[in-house]
């Protein structure tokens, strides 16, 4: 029997997570859930200039909101010693070599290659430097950056999403693993960590396919087992535009602040571009059973952010009171909110937060709208005695209908306007008992109540 999977989500804390990042986070977390594995959250924070503590904290908060709770957590900035040791081994094996070109020199060389119709691949000039060349360059004040010497061969793997996949490493530049200031780029720390923690499945966006070719060689050079890889299609907006951390309104934080349910965001982030229809799925376990990497589409996962509204509304319409109560308490709706209230209003809500508006309509003050005072006065006289219950509305409107001959909209709309001050709203059969006889009568008499 093979060991339980260990998967990881490895964002760089250089911005707020957005719905496109929710996709790999969830695909990993759901994979672990489905296969009895564990989920590691790793902060890829080796870029010290762009990584901030605020973004790092936000990653944790946003994932928790999404319902993704890591089994393991660490940040790369705490693990430099491991990367140093790996770099030393690669140098000793002749797989990491010193280069001294400046950005400008590299750029000039690239232009020349392109001008000759050659691919802009690093020409490995630094490999032919002698010790005295290097000493001379260092004497000029240059510090080396370090490139990984790729084997010029095809790396092949069976991708968990894309099936047979390969990268021809002969067409790639030897990647820089260590900058001149000694800091690490993403590649080496990622492989060292995946190897050291025993990550079994690397599930990430298809923008990393080429990296996988390089990384497989790096696992091998370090003598580590190569994990399985799965590259999922990326979420794009309906016009095919990719999502970047700059698309602020689709950040998980703004979606949370706008009052969307995490389950709506999860459903859209995961089911878009899969074999399943995009629909609201409240439970993570159910979402896990619907998420099969092999059934993800190869085409971009296009979505329209307005789909969130429909998904959200459908989730709210079915939301049990216990769940709504916590949310409402956080939104400042008073404690005495009842299950009856929730069940009376939920079918009318696009977001849970709108319940607060109906709480105010029930409890007042409401300014009644009365267009036909005689009609409303007659209706007020027919208002049944209390206490009000689920059948009160029907009994009352039947009586008003019999007395006035009004029916349909002509019957219901004036009553709704007088009782709530609004043209639309939840079913009055549910709302009237919550408003209660006393307040209903005051409103029918035109008082603000
Ligand atoms: N930090 C990398 C990123 O944000 C991680 C990619 C990976 O999963 O290996 O893209």
Structure description:
It contains 19 helices and twelve strands. It has helices spanning 19-34, 53-66, 80-92, 103-115, 131-139, 187-197, 209-221, 252-257, 262-271, 284-290, 307-317, 321-330, 339-345, 355-363, 373-382, 392-404, 409-420, 428-435, 437-444, and strands at residues 6-9, 38-43, 72-75, 96-99, 145-148, 154-159, 163-168, 176-178, 201-205, 228-232, 235-237, 301-303. The strands form five sheets. It has a three-stranded parallel β-sheet with strand order 1-2-3. The chain has a three-stranded antiparallel β-sheet with strand order 4-5-8. A two-stranded antiparallel ribbon has the order 6-7. It folds into five domains: 6-80 and 185-234, HUPs (Rossmann fold, 3-Layer(aba) Sandwich); 94-153 and 163-178, Glutamyl-tRNA Synthetase, Domain 3 (Glutamyl-tRNA Synthetase, domain 3, Alpha-Beta Complex); 248-317, Glutamyl-trna Synthetase, Domain 2 (Glutamyl-tRNA Synthetase, domain 2); 321-363; 373-444, Arc Repressor Mutant, subunit A (Orthogonal Bundle). 45% of the residues lie in helices and 12% in strands. The longest helix has 16 residues, at 19-34. Strand 2, helix 2 and strand 3 (72-75) form a beta-alpha-beta unit. By secondary structure, it is an alpha/beta fold. Helix 1 crosses helix 10, helix 3 packs across helix 6 (187-197) and helix 6 (187-197) crosses helix 7. Bound molecules: glutamic acid. Glutamic acid is lined by residues 10-12, 44, 186, 190, 204, 208. Glutamic acid binds next to loops. Keywords: Aminoacyl-tRNA synthetase, ATP-binding, Cytoplasm, Ligase, Nucleotide-binding, Protein biosynthesis. Monomer.
């Amino acid at each position: 029997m093979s060991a339980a999977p260990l998967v990881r989500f490895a964002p760089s804390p250089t911005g707020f997570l957005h719905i496109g990042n929710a996709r790999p986070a969830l695909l990993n977390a759901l994979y672990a859930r489905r296969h009895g594995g564990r989920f590691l959250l790793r902060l890829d924070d080796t870029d010290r200039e762009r990584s901030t503590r605020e973004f790092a904290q936000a990653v944790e908060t946003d994932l928790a909101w999404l319902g993704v709770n890591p089994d393991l957590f660490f940040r790369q900035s705490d693990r430099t010693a491991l990367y140093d040791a790996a770099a030393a081994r690669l140098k000793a094996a002749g797989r990491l070599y010193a280069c001294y070109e400046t950005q400008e020199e590299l750029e000039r060389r690239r232009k020349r290659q392109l001008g000759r119709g050659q691919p802009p691949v690093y020409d490995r000039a630094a490999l032919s430097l002698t010790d005295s060349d290097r000493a001379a360059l260092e004497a000029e004040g240059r510090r080396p950056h370090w490139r990984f010497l790729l084997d010029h061969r095809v790396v092949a793997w069976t991708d968990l999403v894309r099936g047979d996949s390969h990268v021809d490493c002969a067409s790639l530049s030897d990647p820089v693993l260590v900058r001149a200031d000694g800091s690490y780029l993403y590649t080496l720390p990622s492989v060292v960590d995946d190897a050291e923690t025993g990550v079994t499945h690397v599930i990430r966006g298809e923008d990393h396919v080429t990296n996988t070719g390089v990384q497989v060689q790096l696992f091998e050079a370090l003598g580590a087992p190569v994990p399985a890889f799965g590259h999922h299609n990326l979420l794009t907006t309906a016009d095919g535009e990719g999502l970047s951390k700059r698309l602020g309104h689709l950040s998980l934080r703004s979606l949370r602040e706008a009052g969307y349910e995490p389950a709506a965001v999860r459903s859209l982030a995961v089911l878009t571009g899969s074999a399943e229809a995009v629909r609201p799925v409240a439970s993570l376990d159910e979402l896990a059973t619907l998420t099969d990497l092999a059934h993800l589409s190869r085409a971009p996962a296009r979505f329209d952010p307005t789909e969130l509204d429909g998904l959200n509304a459908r989730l709210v319409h079915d939301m049990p009171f216990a769940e709504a109560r916590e949310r409402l308490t956080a939104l400042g709706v008073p404690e005495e909110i009842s299950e009856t209230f929730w069940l009376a209003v939920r079918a009318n809500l696009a977001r849970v937060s709108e319940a607060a508006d109906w709480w105010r309509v029930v409890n007042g003050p409401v300014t009644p709208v009365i267009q036909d005072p005689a009609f409303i006065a007659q209706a007020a006289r027919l208002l049944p005695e209390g206490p009000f219950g689920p059948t009160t509305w029907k009994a009352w409107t039947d009586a008003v209908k019999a007395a006035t001959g009004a029916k349909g909209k002509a019957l219901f709309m004036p009553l709704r306007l007088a009782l709530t001050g609004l043209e639309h709203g939840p079913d009055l059969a549910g709302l009237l008992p919550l408003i209660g006889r006393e307040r209903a009568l005051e409103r029918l008499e035109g008082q603000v109540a």
